[in-house]
Amino acid sequence: MATSLSLYVHIPWCVKKCPYCDFNSHALSADGGLDPHLAETYVNQLITDLNADLEDFGLSPSIHSIFIGGGTPSLLPVHSLDRLFKAISAVAPIEADAEITLEANPNSADQSRLRGYRQAGVNRLSLGVQSFDDHSLLHLGRLHDGADAKRAIDAARAAGFSNLNIDLMFGLPYQTLPMALADLDQALDFSPEHLSWYQLTIEPNTVFFNRPPRQPSHDALADISSAGRALLEQAGFERYEVSAFAKQGRECRHNLHYWQFDDYLGIGAGAHGKVSDHQFIQRTQKTRAPRDYLTAPNRQTRTVSGHDLVTEYLLNALRLRRGFTLAHFEKKTRQSASQLLPALERCEQLTLLTLQNKHVLLTEFGYDHLDSLLAQLTED
User: Which one of 46, 281, 349, 379 is separated from 67 by 20 to 30 angstroms, measured CA to CA?
Assistant: First the structure.
């Protein structure tokens, strides 16, 4: 089956596990480096993993986008990443205009390394800044400070990156409205093409879940969110997704691929994928523990259908500010949109959305109450 797919690559290691992080990331030994032999062995397994997915699902795709996430992918040696890209191209050609994103932390993002990534083919960098305030970074358990973050952004530009995302969080321990806006102002000073700005949430199986920090009140968080969105809009950023803001034409194409319910492969420890054909939609996940993954990816597959398929579609499509059309819903789920109409009309009466010419558009109120909207649309 020939098609255009996105590819997610997971690098599971980081120097230190942050207390808020519930991703599949694993701290390295005290010296903080990724052993070169381990990196090479892992890349070998990534290649094996990709080849198995292509063969078992009968795929012969081109690659529309690549996103290398983690963990801390910027711990990966440049030559290892270059070898991975060459191996991918040998079995699934990377399209000439493919978006290739690498996540990087400021403390592992020196100019020489970033230049190497750029020369290897990475054309979009996502820097995990989180905050420019030293005290906030300390509370978050980050290994960099504000000065490190600024140096990393400068290094990214000097290395040739013209498509840069800055990751920021709000609702940080002891954060005030002026502090949150100061973070955004400092990010905007660097004129990034994209900003991911999202609220710190306390997730199970994290240090913060067991020892919750003091966060701003609900009303304070609402004020921060509102004022921050206004500041970003004034600076020329469009909120095209719940927590993603971009200059015109600089939306993250890889993430749009997810939210538009398109197919993608996921390789690496714990990586997820979605593959569909004329009959089924299948979700895949690889084994999570890096040690186990190095033995075998051990892909698990589940078929998604019926009500679960509708729910998954809506969970993705409703993240987009532009919403979705009923025709797109039917194309991606292979189900009649008529089943949605009663719930859509009810939500329209609640001013959560509008239904215009079979196009579902969220109102600002609906976007601020997305959980309630999803519950209304997916209840049995």
Answer: 281
CA 257, 262, 265, 271 dihedral sign is positive
* SS3 of residue 25 by DSSP: coil
Q: What is the pLDDT of residues 261-314, one digit of tens each?
A: 999 999 999 999 999 987 779 999 999 999 999 999 999 999 998 889 999 999
Kindly write down the DSSP assignment for every residue of 40-91, as one continuous string: HHHHHHHHHHHHHHHHHTT--PEEEEEEEEES-GGGS-HHHHHHHHHHHHHH
pLDDT of 30 reads: 60
User: Cα–Cα distance between 360 and 341 in angstroms, integer?
Assistant: 10
- pLDDT (tens digit, 9 = 90+) per residue, 332-359? 999 999 999 999 999 999 999 999 999 9
pLDDT of residue 378: 85
The model's pTM is 0.96
Q: Write the CB contacts of 37 (distance below 8 Å, at least 6 apart in sequence).
A: none
Phi-psi region of 174 (alpha: psi -120 to 50; beta: other; left: phi over 0): left
**4-257 CATH choice from 3.30.230.10, 3.80.30.20, 3.50.50.60, 2.10.70.10:** 3.80.30.20
Helix (H) or strand (E) holding 230, with range, is helix 218-234
CATH topology of domain 305-380: Arc Repressor Mutant, subunit A (1.10.10)
Average pLDDT for 200-215: 94
In one-letter notation, the amino acid at residue 5 is L
- What DSSP letter does each residue of 136-202 carry, written as one string? HHHHTT-S--HHHHHHHHHHHHHTT--SEEEEEEES-TT--HHHHHHHHHHHHTT--SEEEEEE---
